[in-house]
Amino acid sequence: MNEAVEYFGSSTPRHRELMRGVGKALRLETHDHWGGLEAARRAAARGAGIVWLFSHNMINDGIAMISKLRSDPAFADKDLLIPMSTELFYDRRYRHFQSPLRTKFIPIVTPEARARKKLGIYPTGLKTYLEESRNVLKRGGMVAIALQAQGNQGALDMTNPTRAFSLFLKAASPGRDVVIMPVGISAPHAAREHKSQKGAHWGRRIRVDFGRCVSRDQLLAESEEFGGNTDAWAYQALATLLPKAAVKHRE
Which CATH architecture has domain 3-248? Predict the structure, then answer.
């Protein structure tokens, strides 16, 4: 048995059917802008590492992301690494989803946990996440990163961007074939009513918008438009994939 199978679990038709079922329960609606999803499939076929850059405005957007990837034959057998808040990871109900989802979760102390002074309980996990990400990408696997660095934020805050992506790019991206794929995940009914995206929105339609699939070198070149700020590039890339009500701009 190879390292990837031991680490992430093997793919079976049952797993893919399970993920399709989760997608139906979440009522996922997929939109592939600019052929980005097809480009990511081609990248996966040639063995490239893939970074899925997604918005984390609600509770279950991470599950929506995993179910979409795991039900797609192009990504079903790829290693997948995702950060998870310590509160959820050490809650056994969530940690045990690793096996059926065939996904490795790395516990991270989020700013929310830090604010509640829970830092003394668990390590931050950031170093482990970056090291594991680098290893997964080296062998042509997939890594997801939530741009806001914490979940259920309600909207993508363009006024207070984190440095999560630039830190990840410098520390985790190996010098090999890696592509970056922005993904906007939103609840259309909340956007229509100009309400916050916070919550799980169970039983309501969830929209998944795939953006342009770009190489690491292409991203660095395009970030020059933002003075070389890759975080600004990432926030703008996601903002174009979300409804206006799900993006917070300066007033």
Answer: 3-Layer(aba) Sandwich (3.40)
